[in-house]
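Hi U.,

Before I forget, here's the chain from the pilot set. I'm dumping it here mostly so it's searchable later in email.
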Amino acid sequence: MAELDASLEGIEVVFLDLDGTLYLGNQLIEGALDFLSRLSESGIRRFFLSNNSSRSVDQYVEKLQAMGVPAASDDVLLSTHDLLSWLSVNGVSQTYLVGTAGMRQMLEDAGVSTDSADPQYIVLGYDTEITYEKLSMASVHLHRGVPMVASHPDTVCPSPDGGLPDTGAYMELFEAATGVRPEHVCGKPNAGMILHKVESLGLRPEQCAMIGDRLYTDMEMADRAGVHGVLVLSGEATMEALKAAPQAPSLVVGSVDELVR
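Structure:
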């Protein structure tokens, strides 16, 4: 693959992580809006890509627009989309969901029951509305032999105050309580999260870049998909972690503010 510099010359499409890349919590990364403007002026298409399954597409669009980010539903790709594809391929329509109302709506809209008394799978998402009742009921089903599928592997969700418990942390909780790990984990770093979009656009992977702040999801997916990985240090990853990581980003920058200049 050809080398890549901060100008992103030769790139046709970028996939942009959200948490830790464009914003932290409800605060935009400094220079993020100007970066998006430069992308548009350079003719580079962008899609917003997130493992965070706590919000629906509509909720993401609403949040982005409230921050001044021009966004439409077709611009947003979530781990929940990958999860829905996996459930469909595996013929799963009866589940018990540990997830938010926004995630529940996306599953129900796709014809997936989320509160089945006899679920085929426990579905684990990033539940920012977690209750002990959900944890208990899911644990009972797991003890009965119902398998689990998770929307994504992220251990923490970046915030201005430090990492917050994400789906990966919930996985550890359920393993401690029941001994069960998910049968499958959707979302990044699965290459399919972006390759189907790359192919539908008629592009080659090397014409695309994944910009994100996590080594084991964003950069790992870039490696698996054959797209350029652009690591930003505005979220979870550090240079110390990069030195010990197996992933090989094409480019490392402090934040998106350094790109397309």
